[in-house]
C-alpha cells in the first residue's frame, strides 16, 4: 500500500495525566493497493473517517490511538469467489510519531485491519490482519504561529 493523508486537529488538548491529548480527523487516500495472495488484485482505498487521539508529546515522541473506516475498490474480487470488488475496511490501532524537526515527524503504527464486503455479495468471508505503517509527516504551522503570535498546541508542539 502507498498513500497520502490530510488531517486537522479538532480540539485543544483535553484530559488529565497520561490520557491528555487532542482529537484529530484525517482523510486518507491510498492509490496503490496491491494484494498478492491468494490471487493478484490491484485497486485503491479511500478512508474518509480517520480519528486519532494524539497524546501529549513528551520529548521527541508522541504516541496516538486511532480508529478509521474506509472502502477498497479492486480490479478482482477479494477474497476470490462469489464475493465483491468493493469492500469496507475498519481499522483500530496505535502509533508513535518521532519528531525530527518542529514541523516534521517520522511515524510507525500498528493497526488491526478487517476487510469485508458487508454482504453486498452472496458470500462475505472477510479478511482480518495486522497492518504495519511507516510514514513521514509535514505539518503546516498555523497562521497565528507564522505571524509570531505565539505557539499553537498541535501534535507537533503540544505542551502538558
Give a structural overview:
The chain contains one helix and seven strands; from the N terminus they run βββββββα. By secondary structure, it is mainly beta. The chain has one domain: Beta Barrel (Porin). It has a seven-stranded antiparallel sheet, with no helix packed on it. A hairpin with a 5-residue loop joins strand 2 (21-35) and strand 3. It is elongated, with a radius of gyration of 18 Å. The two termini are 35 Å apart.
Describe the protein's topology.
Blueprint: E1 2-9, E2 21-35, E3 41-55, E4 61-74, E5 86-101, E6 104-115, E7 127-138, H1 143-146
Antiparallel strand pairs: 1-2, 2-3, 3-4, 4-5, 5-6, 6-7
Could you give a quick summary of the protein structure above?
This protein has one helix at 143-146, and strands at residues 2-9, 21-35, 41-55, 61-74, 86-101, 104-115, 127-138. The protein is 2% helix and 57% strand. A seven-stranded antiparallel β-sheet has the order 1-2-3-4-5-6-7, with no helix packed on it.
- CATH top level is Mainly Beta
Q: How does the helix and strand content classify structurally?
A: mainly beta
Unreliable spans are: 144-160
Give the termini distance in whole angstroms.
35 Å
**For the largest beta sheet, what order do the strands appear in spatially?**
1-2-3-4-5-6-7
Overall CATH architecture: Beta Barrel
Which percent bin holds the helix content?
under 10%
CATH topology: Porin
Task: Please give the count of helices.
Answer: 1
How would the global form be characterised?
Answer: elongated
Mean pLDDT: 87
Radius of gyration from the alpha-carbon trace, in angstroms:
18 Å
What is the H/E string? EEEEEEEH
Q: How much of the polypeptide forms β-strand, as a percent range?
A: over 45%
* Strand segment count: 7
Number of domains: 1
Q: Biggest sheet: strands, sense, closure? A: 7 strands, antiparallel
Amino acid at each position: 500500500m502507498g498513500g497520502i493523508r490530510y488531517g486537522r486537529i479538532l480540539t485543544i488538548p483535553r484530559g488529565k495525566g497520561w490520557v491528555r491529548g487532542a482529537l484529530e480527523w484525517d482523510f486518507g487516500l491510498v492509490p496503490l493497493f496491491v494484494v498478492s495472495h491468494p490471487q493478484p488484485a490491484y485497486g485503491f482505498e479511500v478512508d474518509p473517517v480517520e480519528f486519532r487521539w494524539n497524546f501529549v508529546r513528551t520529548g521527541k515522541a508522541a504516541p496516538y490511538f486511532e480508529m478509521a473506516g474506509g472502502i477498497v475498490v479492486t480490479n478482482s474480487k477479494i477474497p476470490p469467489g462469489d464475493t465483491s470488488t468493493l469492500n469496507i475496511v475498519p481499522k483500530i490501532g496505535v502509533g508513535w510519531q518521532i519528531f525530527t524537526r518542529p514541523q516534521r515527524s517520522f511515524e510507525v503504527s500498528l493497526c488491526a485491519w478487517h476487510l469485508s464486503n458487508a454482504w453486498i455479495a452472496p458470500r462475505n468471508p472477510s479478511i482480518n490482519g495486522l497492518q504495519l505503517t511507516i510514514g513521514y509527516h509535514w505539518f503546516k504551522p498555523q497562521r497565528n504561529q507564522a505571524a509570531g503570535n505565539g505557539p499553537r498546541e498541535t501534535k507537533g508542539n503540544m505542551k502538558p
